[in-house]
Structures are given as structure tokens and as C-alpha cells.
Amino acid sequence: MALQENRPIDEIYLTAYLADISTASSTFVACPVRGRIVKAYSTIHAAITGADAVWTLEVNNTAVTGVSVTVANSGSAAGDVDSDTPTSATTSLVNPGDRIEFVSDGASSTTSPCTFTVCIQQF
């Protein structure tokens, strides 16, 4: 099946795995390029219950403005994808060796692993 839209060749995607989005914790990935974060995604591996889970994104301990994602517990299921787009060019800049951190508030219950993906447009 052909793609409906050509993807820019200057974008790279990095992933990080979190053992349980329902536990207040973080997962990290090192940035290999200079660029700007343009989108961040999460995919849960099991339904969550009790409350919504919220995750944010940081670069070297600085919050990426505009990225605060709510993973809804109501009707959640394995494979649910949620995403957000940074609203500040300043806080979304990355350099080689920067630490990208996905931070879960752990408000939900029921153990659910989560895979995070960040899209970086290279300069």
C-alpha cells in the first residue's frame, strides 16, 4: 500500500519504553542529532483504569512547552495512540547528546507498558 503523503527526509524518530505508565516515573532516550522536536506520541500496551494518565516531555530537565498528553482511562485499550505538538520553538530544540525524557504522572491504575516516540526535524 502506498503512503498517502511523502514524509520529509530530514525527520528522525526515536522511541523509549516505559514499563508502567500507571506509575509515576520517567523513561529516557539520547538525541543523536541537532534539530527541533515537532511531535511526540505514546502507545499504551494495555487498558488503564482508575484515572487518566498524563505524560509530559522534557529536554535536559526543561519542559517542552505545549506537550502535556492525557491518556484517557475511559474506553482505553491496548494500542491506543495519543500525541501532542510543541508550541515553543525554544524549548523544543535539541542537540546531539541531549537527554529527552518522557514523564508519567502515574495517576492511573492497572499496569500498562507504554512506548513513546518523538519526531525530530533535523537542521
Average of the residue pLDDT scores = 95
Estimate the global geometry from the Cα principal axes: globular
Number of strands: 9
Class based on secondary structure composition and strand pairing: mainly beta
Helical content (DSSP H or I, runs of 4+): under 10%
Number of DSSP helical runs: 0
End-to-end separation: 30 Å
**Overall radius of gyration:** 14 Å
**Oligomerization state:** single chain
Show unreliable segments: none
Largest sheet features: 5 strands, antiparallel
Please indicate the percent range of residues in DSSP E strands (runs of 2 or more): over 45%
Helix/strand order: EEEEEEEEE
Task: Describe the structure in your own words.
This protein has no helices and nine strands. Helices cover 0% and strands 50% of the residues. The chain is an all-beta fold.
Summarize the entry for a quick read.
The protein is an all-beta fold and 123 residues long.
Features:
single chain, 123 residues, five-stranded antiparallel sheet, 0% helix, 50% strand, globular
List the helices and strands and how they pair.
Blueprint: E1 11-18, E2 25-30, E3 35-44, E4 53-59, E5 62-71, E6 81-84, E7 93-94, E8 99-104, E9 114-122
Antiparallel strand pairs: 1-9, 2-8, 3-6, 3-7, 3-9, 4-5, 4-8
